[in-house]
Amino acid sequence: MKFLNYAVTALALLTASPALAQGWINYVNAEDMFTVNLPGEPTIETTTTISQRGDPMPTRIYRANDGDSRYVVTVFDYAVAEVSDVRSSVTWEAWKVRSTLPEGDEITFDGYAQIDRIEGHQIQITHADQSHTYYAWHLHARKLYMLEATVPPGAPLPMLFQVSLSILDEAGEVVRYTIDADGQRVPDDD
Predict the structure, then answer these.
(1) What three-state secondary structure class fits 102?
(2) pLDDT tens digits for range 47-66
(3) What is 23-187's CATH number, 3.40.1000.10, 3.30.750.200, 3.40.50.150, 3.30.420.110?
(4) Rounded to 10 degrees, what is the CA torsion of 166, 172, 178, 182?
(5) Using one digit for the tens of pLDDT, what is the confidence trace for 104-163?
(6) Rounded CA separation 111/6 (Å)
(7) CA angle 97, 146, 78 (to 5 degrees)
(8) Domain regions of the chain by residue span
(9) CA separation for the pair 126, 106 (Å, rounded)
């Protein structure tokens, strides 16, 4: 009976998640210490971006497409940045999205987010043509991870991508925290 329950669950997951049937992969990147679901191996671009204080930040951009849908993970390396740049990085990147919003586009969500109790921020946008873009930012160990997914009108929303980010520690294990009674983040022992 237990086997039957597992089989039914597995079948339900495979049929309920079209992305899995379309060849999505769990992409693991040891250099930037993250894992995320993508519709295939990404192209990688190394560049430099400017922090809020005007300092250059090494940046890597990972891009993968699924038809007209595009998925991007950008990793900003704040290893040598001023503390104020690190602390303001999520707010700075979210402000850049808000300040460049074209006329006719609407922010439909702008608020708190977390993955494995690593705090962050999300913005969801409905564009004038009814396509959607979803952003999420999470800061950990002086790296800012930005997820960006844009899907055309009528396409499934990019939830599989957005919720799949995990940040890895030096041993390649998923970083996961719990919150103690004082609201402090502590490593999860499980």
Answers:
(1) coil
(2) 999 999 999 999 999 999 99
(3) 3.40.1000.10
(4) -110
(5) 999 999 999 999 989 899 999 999 999 999 999 999 999 999 999 999 999 988 988 989
(6) 36
(7) 105
(8) 23-187
(9) 5
